[in-house]
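> example.struct
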């Protein structure tokens, strides 16, 4: 996939969401800048755990795919305003031990040169369903 347009569109964000739902880390990373930042929903810092650069961010996403083999970000809704945007979704996934998670969340995004430079993820904190 080649991203030549310097303006992010809702179709671009849907393609990003589709890559996540396909667990295609290569396709996910094509949407992100080389020096991208991913701030996870949880972690030791005020903004959650922070991953920087293609390799670290890709590894973090692959860990989510491994932890939740059936992970899905359902019904994504995208909004864009200038170089910022967000996507709202409902995350569902089941861990290997049978723990089921279903929570609403969103990603706050910063764009640069037609790609995602920062993905700052937020999700509700809810007890497991099973």
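> example.seq
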């Amino acid at each position: 996939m080649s991203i030549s347009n310097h303006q992010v569109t809702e179709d671009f964000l849907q393609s990003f969401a589709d890559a996540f739902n396909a667990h295609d880390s290569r396709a996910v990373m094509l949407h992100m800048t080389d020096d991208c930042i991913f701030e996870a929903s949880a972690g030791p810092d005020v903004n959650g755990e922070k991953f920087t650069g293609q390799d670290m961010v890709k590894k973090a996403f692959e860990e989510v795919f491994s932890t939740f083999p059936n992970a899905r970000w359902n019904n994504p809704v995208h909004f864009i305003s200038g170089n910022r945007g967000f996507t709202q979704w409902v995350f569902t996934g089941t861990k290997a031990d049978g723990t089921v998670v279903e929570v609403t969340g969103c990603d706050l995004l910063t764009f640069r040169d037609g790609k995602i430079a920062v993905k700052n993820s937020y999700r509700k904190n809810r007890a497991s369903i099973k």
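> remarks
The domain at 10-123 is CATH 3.10.450.50 (Nuclear Transport Factor 2; Chain: A,).
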